[in-house]
């Protein structure tokens, strides 16, 4: 069966070039980057080259990059590394769980947290962030782009607010890296986390930008790896892969391949809105990253649509999977003020570098007919049709 | 049998796992579905409830088992979130029934509102013509009368038709019970032959959302979590001739036929005969007073016939473990049937179901008023 993957905000395939770059570090170049001998020197050099590449993607110095196990660790290290009992932290209601649940944990550990709301477009209002500040505010953490809607947050304005108030600013850049240019100096953030597997590197590696002079309390204790900010032998193959993926991401932003993805995304969006009634884009009126569109198909269960499409070979997603694998209503869409029914009727299409125009054709062939079948069998839709006829 | 697309309601137990494996081996396109119905973490830590189990969702172990079976036999598998509907259509009515002095059967409500309603809709939406489950029961087409029949399982000790009396003709037409002709040992043997790791997994007995079967603690914890207070239903303990012999702490603590925990000491054992919800009275009496000859069943669903035009001789089951007793059943009102037993029956309990059989065939059933 033909399978098309439009769930790249969940994870992306490792690009062949990335895989080739990391392959030697599983075998012949196996050294521990902390060893003083030849083998160690070889891998140390590879790790530092990768660090420079990631730094170049984010517009910072190599020494400001801490390699992590992924986005969740970066978010946690930024938050737990700075906030202590008695501190106040400002965040938003549409953050990823890696930030939200870290903040909720802090709440139980003597910190005060303000969860700034978002508007119907899925945007945080910087003035709300400003108004939330208190004398004991230690940290603001607001994401660059949302994983479910792709909506880009006004991080530069928030960065200015943080700078004026002399408060640390962390941004979860996991869904932005490789999709939009990132310049930590322009954003004015002190910390920014990215994840390898959302940008065609493998799962299990990520990076946290930590502005020089920012004193972070580590979460892992051990050797003096990563300038004592993150103990533990480096994941060399993963780090090398992240370095290569960062290099390709920078090229992609410059050579038009991101623009190609944007065009594919736009075609999905326009065609569905035109050919399927009672649909709309969540976050339509806000700036979005180029690979994501979240569409509500009223009167159906997104869960059933995802299953029906998967059985026909198209992988998309809805809401967030809980530990059993069941879908929970999206906290992001609910925070934007969508009714529970509409939140459950929403589907996310997220594209990656590997997707082609044929993939889009395939999806556009499947989605309208599958939605029609679901509606035909939907008690809610049939009631609505009966009323309007 | 021609190859069709069949959804299997997989609970993670031996029965439904074996059904999935059987249908797959028969060459059908099989889709495994598990319903996420309840979040155990919600009530964890409340008095009488187990402490939080790390990472526990519905019953994560069961979902894990079902998923492993799906992998083993090579079928797509999905977990469908039905928590909201389960609470609305099963848990809340379960709580309300107890609070009004009746003894509910959540499994029948779940079958009527979730398994053979919502899950059947999902099955249809994702392209499956029918839904198969691991119930021990049989569905047959009666071409003569043009009806779908629900029949007892071949293994009477496993028969589950008592919980399935609410199925409509439409639901039955889309339902398959592949285990209806088998015994449990045969099913386990088949599971072994299909290489299912859970072939020896013990049967589940308790109500899935009530840990350890302790429904009183569940009511307390549920109402506390909802921010509701347990309504004060304390009142008098009276005899059948109206004599007050004591007090009780709330009608939800009692069920008809109950002997222990009445809090009164008399020469001969006393039993709960009746719970008068409005008057908050619990009527008690001696063993022989527990017997009565009639019952009224409401919200009746008829399966074998479209209407009961004249009195019919049937066997009536008044609880799952009841053997069934001969009776005559007749229409006694709108959506209501009156069953008159040949011999008086012990502890006819409001809230339970009365299911009418003609031999192996389920004529229909209703809720005991």
Structure overview:
- The complex is a heterodimer of chains A (389) and B (369).
- Chain A contains 15 helices and 14 strands.
- Chain A has a 7-stranded mixed β-sheet with strand order 2-8-7-6-5-3-4, with helices on both faces.
- Chain A folds into 2 domains: 4-12 and 256-388, Aspartate Aminotransferase, domain 1 (Alpha-Beta Complex); 16-253, Aspartate Aminotransferase, domain 2 (3-Layer(aba) Sandwich), CATH 3.40.640.10.
- In chain A, strand 5, helix 6 and strand 6 form a beta-alpha-beta unit.
- Chain A is of the alpha/beta class and 389 residues long.
- Helices cover 43% and strands 14% of the residues of chain A.
- The mean pLDDT of chain A is 96.
- Chain B folds into 3 domains: 5-134 and 178-213, HUPs (Rossmann fold, 3-Layer(aba) Sandwich); 232-285, SH3 type barrels (Roll); 294-368, Translation factors (Elongation Factor Tu (Ef-tu), domain 3).
- Chain B is 24% helix and 29% strand.
- Chain B is built from 7 helices and 17 strands.
- Chain B has helices at 14-25, 60-73, 83-99, 106-125, 169-173, 184-193, 215-225, and strands at residues 5-9, 29-36, 77-81, 130-132, 137-142, 147-152, 175-176, 235-239, 244-248, 271-276, 281-285, 291-302, 312-317, 325-333, 336-346, 353-358, 361-368.
- The interface between A and B is medium-sized, with 19 and 22 residues.
């Amino acid at each position: 069966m033909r399978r098309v993957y439009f769930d790249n905000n969940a994870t992306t395939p490792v690009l062949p070039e990335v895989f080739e770059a990391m392959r030697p570090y599983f075998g012949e170049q196996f050294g521990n980057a902390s060893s003083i001998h030849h083998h160690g020197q070889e891998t140390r050099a590879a790790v530092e080259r990768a660090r420079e590449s990631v730094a170049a993607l984010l517009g910072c110095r190599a020494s400001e990059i801490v390699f992590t196990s992924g986005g969740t660790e970066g978010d946690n290290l930024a938050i737990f590394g700075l906030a202590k009992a008695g501190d106040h932290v400002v965040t938003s209601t549409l953050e990823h769980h890696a930030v939200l649940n870290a903040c909720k944990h802090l709440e139980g550990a003597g910190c005060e947290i303000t969860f700034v709301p978002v508007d119907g477009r899925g945007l945080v209002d910087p003035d709300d962030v400003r108004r939330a500040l208190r004398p004991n505010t230690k940290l603001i953490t607001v994401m660059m782009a949302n994983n479910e809607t792709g909506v880009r947050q006004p991080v530069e304005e928030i960065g200015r607010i943080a700078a004026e108030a002399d408060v640390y600013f962390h941004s979860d850049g996991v869904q932005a890296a490789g999709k939009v240019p990132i310049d930590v100096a322009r954003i004015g953030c002190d910390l920014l986390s990215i994840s390898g597997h959302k940008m065609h590197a493998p799962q299990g590696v990520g990076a946290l930008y930590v502005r020089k002079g920012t004193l972070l309390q580590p979460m892992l204790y051990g050797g003096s790896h990563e300038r004592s900010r993150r103990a533990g032998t480096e994941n060399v193959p993963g780090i090398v892969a992240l370095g290569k993926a960062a290099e390709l991401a920078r090229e992609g932003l410059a050579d038009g391949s991101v623009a190609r993805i944007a065009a594919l995304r736009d075609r999905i969006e326009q065609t569905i809105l035109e050919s399927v009634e009672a649909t709309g884009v969540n976050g339509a009126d806000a700036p979005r990253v180029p690979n994501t569109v979240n569409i509500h198909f009223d009167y159906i269960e997104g869960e059933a649509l995802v299953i029906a499409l998967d059985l026909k070979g198209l992988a998309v997603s809805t809401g967030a999977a809980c530990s059993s694998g069941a879908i929970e209503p999206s906290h992001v869409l609910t925070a934007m003020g969508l009714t529970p029914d509409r939140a459950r009727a929403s589907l996310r299409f997220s594209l990656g570098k590997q997707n082609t125009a044929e993939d889009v054709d395939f999806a556009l062939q499947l989605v309208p007919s599958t939605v029609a079948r679901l509606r035909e069998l939907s008690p809610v839709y049939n009631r609505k049709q009966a009323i309007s006829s | 049998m021609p190859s069709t697309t069949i959804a299997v309601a997989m609970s993670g137990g031996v029965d439904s796992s074996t059904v999935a494996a059987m249908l797959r081996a028969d060459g059908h396109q099989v889709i495994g579905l598990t319903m996420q119905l309840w979040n155990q973490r919600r009530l964890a830590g409340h008095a009488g409830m187990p402490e939080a189990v790390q990472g526990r969702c519905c019953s994560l172990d069961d979902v894990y088992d079902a998923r492993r079976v799906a992998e083993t036999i090579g079928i797509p598998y999905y977990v469908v979130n039905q928590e909201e509907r389960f609470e609305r259509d099963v848990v809340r009515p379960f709580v309300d029934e107890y609070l009004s002095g009746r003894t509910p059967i959540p499994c029948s409500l779940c079958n009527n509102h979730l398994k053979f309603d919502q899950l059947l809709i999902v099955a249809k939406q994702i392209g499956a013509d029918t839904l198969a489950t691991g119930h021990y029961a049989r569905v047959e087409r009666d071409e003569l009368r043009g009806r779908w029949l629900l029949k007892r399982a071949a293994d009477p000790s496993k028969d589950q038709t008592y919980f399935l009396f609410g199925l409509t003709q439409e639901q039955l037409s889309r339902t398959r019970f592949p285990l209806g002709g088998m015994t449990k040992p045969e099913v386990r043997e088949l599971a072994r032959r299909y290489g299912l790791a859970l072939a020896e997994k013990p049967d589940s007995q308790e109500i899935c959302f009530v840990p350890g079967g302790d429904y009183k603690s569940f009511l307390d914890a549920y109402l506390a979590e909802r921010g509701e207070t347990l309504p004060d239903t304390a009142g008098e303990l009276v005899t059948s001739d109206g004599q007050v012999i004591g007090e009780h702490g709330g009608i939800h603590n009692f069920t008809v036929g109950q002997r222990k925990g009445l809090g009164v000491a008399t020469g001969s054992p006393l039993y709960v005969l009746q719970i008068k919800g409005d008057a908050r009275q619990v009527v008690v009496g001696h063993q022989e007073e527990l017997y009565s000859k009639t019952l009224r069943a409401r919200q009746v669903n008829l399966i074998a016939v479209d209407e009961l035009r004249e009195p019919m001789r049937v066997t009536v089951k008044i609880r799952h473990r009841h053997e069934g007793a001969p009776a005559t059943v007749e229409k006694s009102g709108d959506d209501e049937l009156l069953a008159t037993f040949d011999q008086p029956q012990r502890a006819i309990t409001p809230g339970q179901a009365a299911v009418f059989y003609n031999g192996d065939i389920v004529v229909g059933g209703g809720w005991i008023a």
